[in-house]
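Severity: low
Component: inverse-folding endpoint
Summary: output formatting inconsistent between runs
Steps to reproduce: submit the following structure tokens with default settings.
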């Protein structure tokens, strides 16, 4: 067992060019309260605020959660919606793992034996941008029954220039709703477009029946609600800035 808590380089939050870099040992609480994160990529702070309770956020880290790869965890959908990258390091050197290739199954990632997750990298959104994280849970602080993270940007004509939709608790891993994104990108966003994207996103899921958190059918309906609400909130925010 190796304790990484004393490695100070893993606890930094920095801005480098158009990217925000978050060390793997940065706590959820530090992320939640970071002025830099709130200013540059507020979706990340919003997700941190939804994790567990204050005791959990004081101890839990973004790198620990992503490496644990719980399909119902909060960081997976955010990581995918922002199309982040994970930097893995070992005695052989460093390599970047794109978020689309990071989760390989339930509690399983692309990290190799002998590697540790050094940091995660997120590109800072440009232009008129909005975000939302919607999580349905049995009780406050619980793991998600269904969750959706959305990051969205509009061009000067009001069309969607960027859309990221990450989903949690509706497959054997956190997933990106690629088909749902295609319903939105490049278009003027309307209620009909949002509804079509929510329906498409629901069809991309593969949930399982759960005696505690509901049936697969129930989760598909819940994720549809999450996507619709998150898209609506993100669009209204971006529209207000355009």
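Observed output (run 2 of 3):
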């Amino acid at each position: 067992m190796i304790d990484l808590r004393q490695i100070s380089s893993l606890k930094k939050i920095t801005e480098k060019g158009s990217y925000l870099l978050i060390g793997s040992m940065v706590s959820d609480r530090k992320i939640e309260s970071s002025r830099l994160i709130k200013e540059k990529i507020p979706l990340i702070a919003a997700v941190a605020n939804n994790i567990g309770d204050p005791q959990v956020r004081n101890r839990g880290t973004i790198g620990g959660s992503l490496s644990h790869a719980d399909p119902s965890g909060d960081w997976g959908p955010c990581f995918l919606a922002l199309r982040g990258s994970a930097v893995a390091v070992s005695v052989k050197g460093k390599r970047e793992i794109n978020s689309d290739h990071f989760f390989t199954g339930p509690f399983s990632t692309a990290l190799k034996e002998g590697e540790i997750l050094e940091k995660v990298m997120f590109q800072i959104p440009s232009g008129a941008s909005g975000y939302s994280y919607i999580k349905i849970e049995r009780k406050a602080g619980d793991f998600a029954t269904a969750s959706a993270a959305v990051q969205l940007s509009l061009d000067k004509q009001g069309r969607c220039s960027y859309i990221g939709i990450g989903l949690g608790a509706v497959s054997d891993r956190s997933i990106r709703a690629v088909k749902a994104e295609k319903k939105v990108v490049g278009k003027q966003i309307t209620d009909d477009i949002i509804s079509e994207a929510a329906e498409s996103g629901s069809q991309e899921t593969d949930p399982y029946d759960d005696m505690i958190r509901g049936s697969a059918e129930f989760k598909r309906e819940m994720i549809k609600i999450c996507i619709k609400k998150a898209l609506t909130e993100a669009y209204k925010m971006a529209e207000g800035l355009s």
